[in-house]
Amino acid sequence: MPDFQTWANAQQRRFEDVLRRLLPQPDMAPQRLHAAMRYAVLDGGKRVRPLLAFAAGELVNADIARVNIAAAAVELIHAYSLVHDDMPCMDNDVLRRGKPTCHVEYDEATALLVGDSLQCLAFQLMAEHRLNDDPACQLAMIKLLATASGSRGMAGGQAIDLASVGKQLTVPELEFMHIHKTGALIRAAVLLGAHCGNALDQAQLDRLDHFGKCVGLAFQVVDDVLDSEADTATLGKTAGKDAEHDKPTYVTLLGVQAARKMAAELHREALDALSGFGEGARRLRELADFIVLRKF
Predict the structure, then answer these.
(1) DSSP character for 96?
(2) Residue ranges of the alpha helices (H) in the chain?
(3) The model scores a pTM over 0.70
(4) Domain ranges of the chain
(5) CA–CA separation, 106 and 35 (whole Å)
(6) What tens digit of pLDDT does each residue of 257-268 get?
(7) Which fold would CATH assign to domain 4-293?
């Protein structure tokens, strides 16, 4: 079995081709919108959410063609959220994944439509491809992604984030925000990958969900640390923007060392949630390591 970095690099390269195939081609009308959609999605990002879906798919011996669609749907939702988050009405950022944000490269109206279109495409893919032999399970998968994306998930977390600017939150309040804003889609990626293969019992699904919750929170804690310590060139996005916008973070609430300790505790809890899954969960464990120990 290849080492983690070899596996991850191969999955990222392969998945890039999947996205290129699933996105509308740039010569298809309306050309400018389709070109902007491809600009927002392709050639950037670590693809952490798809990697989690692929790792969960390996645990249940899933058909990779099915996991490709689930992973693409999650990544399209994630990309749409970044396009909208970067717009002037939200975070007003000019750099994402090492290149100008979508509304800077194109314009605000196009960026708004890019986000709308990517969200719709995610659910179109989930509806038109068979991801599970049980139609009821596939319908539940679509509901899972919708819930993770909407007001009870990612969008709701962003609303809380915007309402929290300039306020002093408690750690539980900050956790609640990020369980929704960042964690919901990460948890969905794990569960959607798992639903593409051999059925797991509810206790096993609950453990995978807890794993996703822990790595989702750890991802955000590490992001906050990196935002306070790394430079813009390393991050591929504007460094220090949370402090500049007076947003509460784990670093501002806890300090860097305590935030690092929290990430380490979440890491251990995530690995504990995978106990009992055996060697099949190897890639999930390695992804937990990567999320907590990454430098950029």
Answers:
(1) E
(2) 4-22, 31-41, 48-59, 64-85, 102-105, 108-128, 135-149, 154-163, 171-181, 183-195, 202-229, 232-235, 241-244, 250-254, 256-273, 282-293
(3) yes
(4) 4-293
(5) 10
(6) 999 999 999 999
(7) Farnesyl Diphosphate Synthase (1.10.600)
